[in-house]
Amino acid sequence: MASRRDTSPGTSLESSVKQVQIEGLVVLKIIKHYQEEGQGSEVVQGVLLGLVVDDRLEITNCFPFPQHTEDDADFDEVQYQMEMMRSLRHVNIDHLHVGWYQSTFFGSFMSRALLDSQFSYQHAIEESVVLIYDPIKTAQGSLSLKAYRLTPKLMEICKEKDFSTEGLKKANMGYESMFEEVPIVIKNSHLINVLLWELEDKSTAVEKHELLSLSSSSYHEKSLQMLMDRVDDMCQDISKYNNFSRSLSKQQQQKHQYIQRRQQENAQRQSRGEPPLPEEDLSKLFKPPQPPPRMDSLLIAGQINTYCQTVKEFTSQNLGKLFMAEALQGHGS
């Protein structure tokens, strides 16, 4: 469990996490982990260590999950994590578990696997967060690192494991209320800041014209392509639900007709002085069709919303570059 340090005797132990403070070294370790082991769409993951101070989660260290193949059948991830945290504790480094991190490919991270993993972390450690690192977007010139937590509403649904349409409707659950993003602050020690200033003074001037480059169609094209793929998945999911609704309506109609026929036969038998027909278990005669899982639809909708926000941010930056280039061209002429 993450440790808390109270600044006053009246501080509540149940305060929620409202800010994530990350050491600069942790960010570099996450980036280095992907550069060494991540290839293309391959996902890398690791453990976050730190502590909780009031409503702020401080991430001070991390270590990666090792890549293992099918041949490593005896590898135990839980035992590996415990040994790593035990070793860190022996050298007096923060070893308290506060969450995990994962890389993503073009912002594609909302999946059932991530939902189940974060629920397990957050159920065991209330303050847990998941850091999502996007190396493709980072390569475009801005660090893409976001912290997410499951909302209390979604935590209750996952505890009850009621992902039916009625359960989600009763909880008023939508894709926008599944994950909550926690603000991130990257902090360095004063010695690190002094070192960065010295390195900046000693380093030679670097040309930064690539930040104004307008050739970004490949990234934009890939984002739109993945957005269209998710829209196709949503259409297929809607089609499955419509088929389920039609099958359920047809079965209800057949059940109603069967009950009416039985009532007419019993009325005729009663008029002839015969005993009525024995009652039958309608649930065995008319087994309701299995409804499709609705949580997958919410995850797809959430991923579509993430893609739309990414495209919106990217296009707004490009439009700014275009207006700047137009102004410079007009000024030069």
TrEMBL record:
CDD domains: MPN_eIF3h. Residues 250-261 have a biased composition (Low complexity). PROSITE patterns: MPN (PS50249). One of its GO terms (cellular component) is eukaryotic 43S preinitiation complex. GO terms for biological process: formation of cytoplasmic translation initiation complex. GO terms for molecular function: metallopeptidase activity; translation initiation factor activity. Component of the eukaryotic translation initiation factor 3 (eIF-3) complex, which is required for several steps in the initiation of protein synthesis. The eIF-3 complex associates with the 40S ribosome and facilitates the recruitment of eIF-1, eIF-1A, eIF-2:GTP:methionyl-tRNAi and eIF-5 to form the 43S pre-initiation complex (43S PIC). The eIF-3 complex stimulates mRNA recruitment to the 43S PIC and scanning of the mRNA for AUG recognition. PANTHER family: EUKARYOTIC TRANSLATION INITIATION FACTOR 3 -RELATED. Belongs to the eIF-3 subunit H family. Component of the eukaryotic translation initiation factor 3 (eIF-3) complex, which is composed of 13 subunits: EIF3A, EIF3B, EIF3C, EIF3D, EIF3E, EIF3F, EIF3G, EIF3H, EIF3I, EIF3J, EIF3K, EIF3L and EIF3M. This is Eukaryotic translation initiation factor 3 subunit H. It comes from Pangasianodon hypophthalmus (Striped catfish). The lineage of its organism: Eukaryota, Metazoa, Chordata, Craniata, Vertebrata.
